[in-house]
Structures are given as C-alpha cells and as structure tokens.
C-alpha cells in the first residue's frame, strides 16, 4: 500500500460541494457548473490549442489518438489513422456516440465507446451523446441474427425516460471524475446530450431518400455481415431494418452541420454504420453546396469513424454478463454493492486492461497500482480501485464510498459480519413481497414496470428464471427443498453452483457459507454473521438457518451472495416459478412416494 500513498495525482474524492451538486442533478435539476465549461475568449482558446498542437508535434505531449490507442480503445479507424491523428491534433473537432434505448438502462458492455468519448470531452473536444429515441423505432440489425421484438409504447417511453436520466447522470459523474483526476480546469469543454427524435420526427421520407438514399450504394450495404447472415440463415430482413443506416447517417449529417461533429465512435458491430455515414455525409457535402468542400484530400473537414474493440474476458467469455445476465448500470437493476462485486471478481489477467478502459486514472498511476497488486495478488488492490471507479462513474461518488465500505464490513478480516446496504434493500424487497399492500405507490410502479420489462425480455428468449433474477436480486425457492442433508441441493437451486455434486465439493472445501439466524433478523440485519456450512452435510438441516422463517442467505467463496426467499410449494407453483433441480426433485419424490434427499 505504501506505493499507492505516493500517488501524485488523484484527489481522494471530489469536494463535498461537487457531490452535493451531483445529488441535485440526480434529483432532476440540471446543474450549471463552471468547471471546464468556461466560455473562453475564442482567440485565447485557439492560441491554447495551437500551443498544444506544437507540443504534440515536438514529441513533448502525446496525441489524442495515441492516448486512446494506449488505453485500448481503438480497434479500427475508418478514414485513415494518420489523417485522424493529424486532425485531432489540429482541430477541436466534435465527436459523438449514439445508443438506442432498447432497454431501460445501458449495460457495462455499452461503456467502451462512451469512455472513449468522455476522454475526448475531458481533453477539450466538443462531445455529444445521442439517445436514439427516433432510431429505436426502426431497430438496428447490426450484430444481430434475428429481428428485435417490437416494444410496447409504454415500455418504450419508460426506456427513453430512464436512459435519458442515466446519460445525464453519467455526464455529471464524468465531470466529477475529471475534477478528481485533475484534468485541467482551464480549457473549454462542451458536452451535449441530444435525442435524434427531435429531428427525425420532422424528416420526410422524400427528403431522406433524396438526401441520404442517393448517396448510399447498395453494394456495401448488401455486403455487410449482418445482412448476409440473415439472408443465409433464412431469417431474412425487413426493409425498415435494412434502411437503418440511412437514419444513423442522417443524424451525423445533422450534427455535422450544427455542431461540427466529424468523428463518430461506436462498438465494432457499428463499423458498417460508421462507414455508411461517412459516405453519406461526404456525398451530401458535395451535392448540397457545402462551402467547406475543397480538394479531394480536404481532411480538415472530413469525417472519421472509430470502432472500439469487442471485449472478452481472459477466459474468453463475453464481457458484461454475470451468470448469463447483463450487468446493468442502473442502480435499480443492479445495486452499487453488486456492481462493485462484479468488478471485484475481475481476473488478475484482465484487471490492468480494464483499469485503462473503465477509469480515468493516468497510465503512471495504473502502473503503480499494478506494481502494488503484483506484490500481493490476494489483496486484490487493483480490482478494488477498478470497482470503486466504475461505481463512481455509474452511480456517483457517494454510492461508491458506500459500496466500498459495505464490502469492507462484509469481508473484514474473516469475521464476516455484515450490514450490507444492498442486502438490507433486498430484505425489504422480501418483506414487500409478503405484504404487497405495504408497498408505497411509487415503488409499486417500479416493481410493475420491472415485471413488464422482465416479461418482455422473456419474449426475446430468456427463460422465466432469468427474468426473475433480472427483476430482483432474490431467488425464490420452495420449502420442500430444505430438509436435513439438503444443503448441496439448495446451493444448486439458488444458482450458486452448477450441480448438487458441485455443492457437495464446495461444502467439503469449506467454501460455502450461510447466515446464522440468531445473529439478527430481517428487521435488524446489521448484526448478522456468516457461518461456514458444516462439513457434516447429512446431519445439517438448512431449515435451522431460516431468517424469520422466510429467507436463507447463502454465500459461495468470498463474494457470491444469494438471498433466497423461501415459500410454500403451493405459493411457488402458484407464482409459476421454478429453480435448478426442482423438476428433478419432484420426479424423484413422486417415484419414491416420499421426500427425496
Ligand atoms: N445504432 C447504434 C445506436 C445509434 C443510433 C443513432 C446514431 O446516430 C448513432 C448510433 C446502436 O445500435 O448501437
């Protein structure tokens, strides 16, 4: 840790005032800050930019593109790497990333192009986040093998509102992180959160076809993987999906004119859309009498696309999935504690790469963190830094502090006492389920909404069990599963292990824990304590660990916690639920005519 103390730059946290401001924003009022948004005298700003360009040319400073490359953001550059490098050095061009509100929240997989955009913003490039409330009506086929299910109007409206709020919050947190990591205050910064519905709703079909359609060639559009795959797998593609790139291209043209946006960033599945947009914008500039059109190599006014890589973990899994479900940024869908735990579980082989991608820590700082990490990997120093920074980005500084404190409390020196605020929330949810009339109206709305969302994601192929997990952090188990000797079965049913025998092995190596019932209650969870599930499986009865007769709290290893709500078999069936091993259990019970062990 002593190495970390020498760190030259980051403030421990942004000042109280910033946090207060941030909270005000979260509560819905937009803040007007001054940091980095100083309306600078244009001549002074230009002189400052020129000075920086000279430093880059003389090798005294790294170029913007080099910084992005060094941190792992660049997979492909459309329009030429050298040209973009030159342009970013020469001119404070505008940049944008778009996201369609296909769900109520972004997930961590979305973060990569956004992080690259935030770096541009913090370095002084006018930056735009674009919410695709217009394009979501069409549905982007990129990277998909099937057509998206149509969203109901009310679900779509909720998604749009939620994501808009989320993007606003992200911007506020980025600003706080910029202050914390001491990005210079004395530069001009512009950020915008736009919504393409504002211009697409007024766009006529004739205008779109005439302006954008004429500039797009069928050849490259048909050659795209997303189109070819659909033709080959027999799924086919609707014309509206096929025409999606036209709308994205029109967005770019609109922002090119209004805000000087010359760079679009996106995930690698967006590469085709980025190229199509560049072609369309250059066609429109030529045909619509853009004064700026110069010679063929008019790089100063050209457009560029930057595709970020598709992330996989060191073990080859797709990044951003936890137990098969997406890791959401919305704290109602994944609380700060769980988000913290997700990043804490990052493999040692991935953590340096993720620190570069998901934090604003300078590279030298990351080197120091890694040096300290290598001295004692078991401390997971790097994973803690990563987890805290990501929660701070997604949920804000206050929640990051709480998540860190909750973790420390939960896992401090093997005493395993906890008062997890996430757990407390979950307990409250259990109580609500049992007394639905006690839930206040706003919460009820949220729960109903989550249910709608869960059932709409069932339509896209998730099992009912997945949706149940998505809707809450709690699993529901039927009481008959709990009998003397059944802990391995319960661990399996709770989703903590893949099979009963894996459960047996986990208990044998003393890696399974359960909360002691007489150490607290749902009403007062702060005193609860963990106990290792005893090795003598056959004489242990999970029923003895029921909290207030309705919940069992289990843990596998250091951090995988599962809260189980226990209901009677009748209620379980009435709610249409199932869990791993349940069907099998019932079949064996019917066969033997008695309860199965
Ligand atoms: N098509 C992008 C989102 C997007 C929408 C509109 C744009 O102008 C740009 C990007 C996606 O699905 O990820």
TrEMBL record:
Enzyme Commission code: 6.1.1.1
Q: Which domain of life is it from?
A: Eukaryota
Class of this enzyme:
ligase
- Gene Ontology BP terms: tyrosyl-tRNA aminoacylation
User: Which Pfam families has this protein been placed in?
Assistant: tRNA-synt_1b, TyrRSs_C
Q: Which reaction does this enzyme catalyse, per its entry?
A: tRNA(Tyr) + L-tyrosine + ATP = L-tyrosyl-tRNA(Tyr) + AMP + diphosphate + H(+)
Q: Which GO terms describe its molecular function?
A: ATP binding; RNA binding; tyrosine-tRNA ligase activity
- The record places domain Tyrosyl-tRNA synthetase C-terminal at 469-583
Q: Which UniProt keywords apply?
A: Aminoacyl-tRNA synthetase, ATP-binding, Ligase, Nucleotide-binding, Protein biosynthesis
User: What do the Gene Ontology cellular component annotations say?
Assistant: cytosol; mitochondrion
The record's similarity note reads:
Belongs to the class-I aminoacyl-tRNA synthetase family.
Protein name per its UniProtKB record: Tyrosine--tRNA ligase
| Source organism of this protein record | Paraphaeosphaeria sporulosa
Q: What is this organism's lineage? A: Eukaryota, Fungi, Dikarya, Ascomycota, Pezizomycotina
